[in-house]
Protein backbone atom coordinates (compact mmCIF):
# COMPACT_ATOMS: atom_id res chain seq x y z
CA UNK A 1 0.00 0.00 0.00
CA UNK A 2 1.43 3.40 -0.97
CA UNK A 3 1.92 6.09 1.61
CA UNK A 4 -0.20 9.22 1.41
CA UNK A 5 0.91 11.81 -1.17
CA UNK A 6 3.68 14.12 -0.02
CA UNK A 7 3.80 17.74 -1.07
CA UNK A 8 6.59 19.64 -2.68
CA UNK A 9 8.63 16.77 -4.12
CA UNK A 10 11.25 18.62 -6.16
CA UNK A 11 11.15 17.13 -9.65
CA UNK A 12 13.50 17.54 -12.61
CA UNK A 13 12.80 16.40 -16.16
CA UNK A 14 15.52 15.43 -18.66
CA UNK A 15 13.78 15.13 -22.02
CA UNK A 16 14.95 16.41 -25.44
CA UNK A 17 11.39 16.54 -26.82
CA UNK A 18 9.74 19.85 -25.90
CA UNK A 19 6.31 18.34 -26.51
CA UNK A 20 6.89 15.36 -24.19
CA UNK A 21 8.43 17.61 -21.53
CA UNK A 22 5.48 20.00 -21.68
CA UNK A 23 3.07 17.08 -21.44
CA UNK A 24 4.79 15.71 -18.35
CA UNK A 25 4.80 19.15 -16.77
CA UNK A 26 1.04 19.42 -17.36
CA UNK A 27 0.44 15.96 -15.87
CA UNK A 28 2.41 16.84 -12.74
CA UNK A 29 0.57 20.16 -12.43
CA UNK A 30 -2.70 18.21 -12.24
CA UNK A 31 -1.40 16.58 -9.05
CA UNK A 32 -1.52 19.94 -7.31
CA UNK A 33 1.45 20.79 -5.10
CA UNK A 34 2.65 17.22 -4.81
CA UNK A 35 5.36 17.68 -7.45
CA UNK A 36 7.39 20.88 -7.74
CA UNK A 37 9.13 21.23 -11.11
CA UNK A 38 12.62 22.56 -10.36
CA UNK A 39 13.95 22.32 -13.91
CA UNK A 40 13.47 20.91 -17.40
CA UNK A 41 16.60 19.97 -19.35
CA UNK A 42 17.22 18.63 -22.83
CA UNK A 43 20.47 16.85 -21.98
CA UNK A 44 22.01 15.21 -18.88
CA UNK A 45 25.19 17.33 -18.97
CA UNK A 46 23.20 20.53 -18.50
CA UNK A 47 21.23 18.92 -15.69
CA UNK A 48 24.40 17.60 -14.01
CA UNK A 49 25.73 21.16 -13.77
CA UNK A 50 22.64 22.37 -11.92
CA UNK A 51 21.75 19.24 -9.96
CA UNK A 52 23.96 19.95 -6.89
CA UNK A 53 22.05 23.20 -6.35
CA UNK A 54 18.61 21.87 -7.27
CA UNK A 55 18.87 18.64 -5.24
CA UNK A 56 15.69 17.10 -6.72
CA UNK A 57 13.83 14.28 -4.99
CA UNK A 58 12.67 12.87 -8.31
CA UNK A 59 14.29 12.86 -11.77
CA UNK A 60 12.35 11.83 -14.87
CA UNK A 61 14.83 10.79 -17.55
CA UNK A 62 14.43 9.82 -21.19
CA UNK A 63 16.99 6.97 -21.54
CA UNK A 64 17.78 8.04 -25.12
CA UNK A 65 19.74 11.02 -23.77
CA UNK A 66 22.50 8.62 -22.79
CA UNK A 67 24.68 6.91 -25.35
CA UNK A 68 24.89 3.12 -25.20
CA UNK A 69 27.99 3.11 -23.00
CA UNK A 70 26.45 5.41 -20.40
CA UNK A 71 23.03 3.78 -20.12
CA UNK A 72 24.33 1.21 -17.65
CA UNK A 73 25.78 3.87 -15.37
CA UNK A 74 22.90 6.28 -14.83
CA UNK A 75 23.45 6.42 -11.08
CA UNK A 76 27.19 6.91 -11.34
CA UNK A 77 26.54 9.78 -13.76
CA UNK A 78 24.38 11.43 -11.09
CA UNK A 79 26.19 10.10 -8.03
CA UNK A 80 25.93 13.48 -6.28
CA UNK A 81 22.18 12.74 -5.91
CA UNK A 82 22.35 9.59 -3.76
CA UNK A 83 18.78 9.84 -2.46
CA UNK A 84 16.94 10.87 -5.63
CA UNK A 85 14.51 8.52 -7.37
CA UNK A 86 15.15 8.11 -11.11
CA UNK A 87 12.24 7.23 -13.38
CA UNK A 88 12.62 6.41 -17.08
CA UNK A 89 10.38 8.08 -19.66
CA UNK A 90 9.58 5.23 -22.04
CA UNK A 91 8.40 5.50 -25.66
CA UNK A 92 8.53 1.80 -26.53
CA UNK A 93 10.71 -1.17 -25.67
CA UNK A 94 13.35 -0.65 -22.99
CA UNK A 95 15.89 -3.41 -22.50
CA UNK A 96 15.97 -5.08 -19.05
CA UNK A 97 19.53 -3.95 -18.24
CA UNK A 98 18.63 -0.32 -18.88
CA UNK A 99 15.40 -0.63 -16.92
CA UNK A 100 17.30 -1.92 -13.87
CA UNK A 101 19.05 1.44 -13.59
CA UNK A 102 15.79 3.18 -12.71
CA UNK A 103 13.41 3.07 -9.76
CA UNK A 104 10.45 3.03 -12.12
CA UNK A 105 9.21 3.69 -15.66
CA UNK A 106 6.39 5.79 -17.06
CA UNK A 107 5.15 5.21 -20.59
CA UNK A 108 4.06 8.12 -22.77
CA UNK A 109 0.74 6.31 -23.32
CA UNK A 110 0.01 6.02 -19.58
CA UNK A 111 -2.87 8.20 -18.42
CA UNK A 112 -2.30 10.96 -15.87
CA UNK A 113 -3.42 8.94 -12.87
CA UNK A 114 -1.20 6.01 -13.76
CA UNK A 115 1.83 8.27 -14.23
CA UNK A 116 1.33 9.93 -10.85
CA UNK A 117 0.79 6.54 -9.20
CA UNK A 118 4.02 5.20 -10.71
CA UNK A 119 5.97 8.26 -9.56
CA UNK A 120 4.65 7.91 -6.02
CA UNK A 121 5.62 4.24 -6.04
CA UNK A 122 9.14 5.04 -7.25
CA UNK A 123 9.56 7.62 -4.49
CA UNK A 124 8.25 5.21 -1.87
CA UNK A 125 10.55 2.44 -3.10
CA UNK A 126 13.54 4.79 -3.04
CA UNK A 127 12.72 5.88 0.51
CA UNK A 128 12.49 2.28 1.70
CA UNK A 129 15.74 1.45 -0.10
CA UNK A 130 17.51 4.31 1.68
CA UNK A 131 16.06 3.43 5.07
CA UNK A 132 17.04 -0.25 4.75
CA UNK A 133 20.63 0.47 3.75
CA UNK A 134 21.88 -0.17 7.26
CA UNK A 135 23.15 2.70 9.35
CA UNK A 136 21.69 6.17 9.05
CA UNK A 137 22.59 8.51 6.24
CA UNK A 138 24.43 10.93 8.53
CA UNK A 139 28.21 10.59 8.61
CA UNK A 140 29.96 10.32 11.94
CA UNK A 141 32.54 12.95 12.90
CA UNK A 142 35.36 10.53 12.09
CA UNK A 143 33.83 9.66 8.72
CA UNK A 144 33.54 13.37 7.92
CA UNK A 145 37.23 13.79 8.76
CA UNK A 146 38.15 10.88 6.49
CA UNK A 147 35.94 12.28 3.73
CA UNK A 148 37.74 15.62 3.91
CA UNK A 149 41.09 13.86 3.60
CA UNK A 150 39.87 11.87 0.60
CA UNK A 151 38.55 15.04 -1.05
CA UNK A 152 41.97 16.65 -0.58
CA UNK A 153 43.51 13.85 -2.61
CA UNK A 154 45.26 11.98 0.20
CA UNK A 155 46.05 8.27 -0.19
CA UNK A 156 44.84 5.68 2.32
CA UNK A 157 48.35 5.51 3.80
CA UNK A 158 48.54 9.30 4.17
CA UNK A 159 45.08 9.37 5.78
CA UNK A 160 46.06 6.60 8.19
CA UNK A 161 49.21 8.43 9.24
CA UNK A 162 47.42 11.77 9.63
CA UNK A 163 44.68 10.33 11.84
CA UNK A 164 46.88 7.79 13.65
CA UNK A 165 44.79 4.83 12.53
CA UNK A 166 45.50 1.75 10.42
CA UNK A 167 45.02 1.59 6.66
CA UNK A 168 42.45 -1.16 7.27
CA UNK A 169 40.44 1.25 9.44
CA UNK A 170 40.64 3.92 6.74
CA UNK A 171 39.30 1.46 4.17
CA UNK A 172 36.48 0.52 6.55
CA UNK A 173 35.54 4.17 7.02
CA UNK A 174 35.58 4.74 3.27
CA UNK A 175 33.23 1.80 2.74
CA UNK A 176 30.84 3.28 5.30
CA UNK A 177 31.03 6.68 3.59
CA UNK A 178 30.25 5.12 0.22
CA UNK A 179 27.32 3.16 1.66
CA UNK A 180 25.80 6.18 3.37
CA UNK A 181 26.28 8.68 0.54
CA UNK A 182 25.93 6.30 -2.40
CA UNK A 183 29.01 7.95 -3.93
CA UNK A 184 31.86 5.73 -5.14
CA UNK A 185 34.37 8.08 -6.79
CA UNK A 186 36.78 10.61 -5.31
CA UNK A 187 35.43 13.34 -7.59
CA UNK A 188 31.90 12.64 -6.40
CA UNK A 189 32.96 12.70 -2.75
CA UNK A 190 34.76 15.98 -3.37
CA UNK A 191 31.56 17.53 -4.72
CA UNK A 192 29.68 16.17 -1.69
CA UNK A 193 32.25 17.69 0.69
CA UNK A 194 32.02 21.07 -1.06
CA UNK A 195 28.21 21.09 -1.03
CA UNK A 196 28.14 20.23 2.67
CA UNK A 197 30.73 22.89 3.55
CA UNK A 198 33.23 20.34 4.82
CA UNK A 199 35.96 21.87 2.66
CA UNK A 200 36.53 25.09 0.71
CA UNK A 201 37.37 25.30 -2.97
CA UNK A 202 40.84 26.51 -1.96
CA UNK A 203 41.46 23.18 -0.18
CA UNK A 204 41.47 21.27 -3.45
CA UNK A 205 43.15 23.76 -5.76
Short description:
By secondary structure, the protein is an alpha/beta fold. Helix content is 47%, strand content 13%.
Walkthrough of the structure:
With 205 residues, this protein is α/β, with parallel strands linked by helices. Strand 1 (9-14), helix 1 (18-30) and strand 2 (35-41) form a beta-alpha-beta unit. Residues 1-5 have low confidence and may be disordered. The chain is built from nine helices and five strands. Helix content is 47%, strand content 13%. The chain has a five-stranded parallel beta sheet, sandwiched between helices. It folds into two domains: 9-131, Response regulator (Rossmann fold), CATH 3.40.50; 141-204, Orthogonal Bundle (Arc Repressor Mutant, subunit A).
The domain count comes to 2
Number of strands: 5
Low-confidence stretches: 1-5
Q: Helices and strands: which structural class? A: alpha/beta
- Major sheet description: 5 strands, parallel
Radius of gyration: 19 Å
* Shape field: elongated
SS summary, helix count: 9
Quaternary organisation of the protein chains: single chain
Let me know the average pLDDT: 84
Helical fraction: 40-55%
Summary tags:
Rossmann fold; 5 strands; 5-stranded parallel sheet; alpha/beta; 205 residues; Arc Repressor Mutant, subunit A; disordered N terminus; 2 domains; 9 helices
How are the elements arranged and paired?
Blueprint: E1 9-14, H1 18-30, E2 35-41, H2 44-54, E3 58-61, H3 74-77, E4 85-90, H4 96-99, E5 104-107, H5 112-131, H6 141-151, H7 156-163, H8 167-181, H9 186-195
Parallel strand pairs: 1-2, 1-3, 3-4, 4-5
Amino acid sequence: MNSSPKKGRKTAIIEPSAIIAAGLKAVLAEAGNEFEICGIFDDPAHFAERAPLLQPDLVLVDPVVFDFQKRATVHSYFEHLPQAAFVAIVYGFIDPETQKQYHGCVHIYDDSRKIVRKLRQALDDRTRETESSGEGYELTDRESEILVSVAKGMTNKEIADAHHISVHTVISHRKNITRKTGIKTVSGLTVYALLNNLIDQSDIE
